[in-house]
Design a protein that fits this description.
The protein is mainly alpha-helical. Helix content is 69%, strand content 3%. It has a two-stranded antiparallel sheet with strand order 1-2. A hairpin with a 7-residue loop joins strand 1 and strand 2.
Length: 243
């Protein structure tokens, strides 16, 4: 593994993404069912990019700091803060060739959400978890390996594929994390049942749109920034593409 050097340019880039993440928190994308007045925002499209461009550690920190800033500014909710950090961590570990870490993180979050005592969807409405299972299937499949390998390509279509697959898995992991935080609110059981039923076929559409938006932005940024940035961006030697 190569050493990570924090140059002034790289630190400035990380700070810029942190600020951008907080600002995009003011752009609503989809309402959060069960939390009136709060919405999933355009910041969700940036979270997977942070992990890929800045690495799992700096990327997660950038998403977390941007999320906390957005929380204080009133643009983000607590579930969104954790969702962004989990998304960046997942995409960063996938891109960095540490897919096993991403799998462990994903499975842990999924089981904690699904089997949360009495109100988890596994007890109330198991169908809710179908797309989260799809995400895990993609993560452990050869398709994700192919996507990671495609980050090495100069071909725009292959890069878009790489970002689409990685962003989709990561943003679903973030959705799981954010929903897990929502479960800790300890609202009436009927509220959670209604949420699982009402969003079981909406959040997959929402996450797919987020992933495609992230892929469009990420592909352009990746091609523009890769030639001029050192280790913190594109931070790991990825000779081992998968565990």
């Amino acid at each position: 593994m190569t050493a990570i050097r924090l140059t002034a340019k790289n630190v400035a880039t990380a700070a810029t993404f942190t600020a951008l993440y907080a600002v995009l928190g003011f752009v609503p994308f989809s309402p959060i069912i069960g939390i009136p007045g709060k919405a999933i925002t355009a910041a969700a499209m940036i979270a997977p990019i942070l992990g890929i461009l800045l690495g799992p550690y700096v990327g997660t920190l950038s998403a977390l700091m941007g999320g906390v800033l957005g929380l204080f500014l009133g643009s983000l909710s607590p579930p969104s803060v954790y969702a962004g950090a989990a998304t960046a961590l997942c995409s960063g570990t996938i891109y960095g060739g540490k897919r096993l870490i991403a799998v462990v993180l994903y499975v842990f979050l999924f089981l904690a959400l699904a089997f949360y005592p009495s109100i988890g969807p596994a007890w109330l409405f198991p169908t809710y978890t179908w797309f989260q299972i799809v995400g895990l299937t993609i993560l452990i499949s050869p398709a994700q390996v192919s996507a990671v390998n495609s980050f090495e390509s100069e071909n725009t279509s292959r890069l878009f594929f790489a970002f689409s697959m990685t962003s989709l898995v990561s943003t679903v992991a973030g959705q799981i994390a954010g929903t897990l935080v929502f479960e800790t609110y300890q609202l009436p059981e009927a509220t959670y049942l209604g949420t699982w039923i009402g969003t079981a076929f909406w959040y997959p559409v929402e996450r797919t749109i987020i992933a495609l938006g992230s892929a469009l932005i990420g592909t352009a940024l990746f091609k523009a920034l890769k030639p001029s940035f050192s280790p913190i961006l594109f931070h790991l030697t990825r000779s081992e593409k998968h565990p």
